[in-house]
């Protein structure tokens, strides 16, 4: 896709405000801070900060995948542990960054109490499928 065929984008800025973290997103054990990217890109991409709000429980470890074109996660605080099909178990720490190829099966294996992640996904609207 070249720039001329991309949706028109607008400038946006988002400054940290703890009051902007909202629950009710994809994961019920997390709060999300929308960074305004979905609106500014007219759905081309989304970006948010994810703050873990509950302790890890094995019941949350379900194999799943996201039907996306691109997904990048960066650890802002703490650590986050996942298992990826064909890759194995990975523990990401503050400053770690990973890119999940489209539709890669994975499951969450744990996180620190202070864990915060930056997640960037293309496109904004996408399906998450639980694989059983």
From TrEMBL:
Transmembrane segments: none annotated. This is Cupin domain-containing protein. Gene3D superfamilies: Jelly Rolls. Signal peptide: none annotated. Pfam families: Cupin_2 (PF07883). The lineage of its organism: Bacteria, Pseudomonadati, Pseudomonadota, Betaproteobacteria, Burkholderiales. InterPro entries: Cupin_2 (IPR013096), RmlC-like_jellyroll (IPR014710), RmlC_Cupin_sf (IPR011051). Residues 54-118 form the Cupin type-2 domain.
């Amino acid at each position: 896709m070249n720039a001329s065929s991309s949706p028109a984008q607008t400038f946006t800025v988002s400054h940290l405000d703890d009051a902007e973290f909202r629950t009710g997103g994809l994961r019920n054990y997390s709060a999300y801070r929308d960074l305004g990217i979905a609106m500014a890109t007219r759905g081309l991409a989304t970006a948010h900060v994810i703050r873990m709000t509950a302790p890890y429980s094995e019941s949350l470890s379900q194999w799943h995948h996201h039907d996306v074109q691109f997904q990048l996660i960066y650890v802002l605080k703490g650590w986050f542990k996942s298992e990826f099909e064909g890759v194995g178990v990975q523990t990401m720490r503050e400053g770690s960054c990973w890119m999940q190829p489209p539709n890669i099966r994975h499951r969450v294996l744990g996180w620190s109490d202070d864990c915060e992640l930056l997640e960037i996904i293309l496109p904004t609207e996408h399906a998450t499928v639980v694989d059983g």
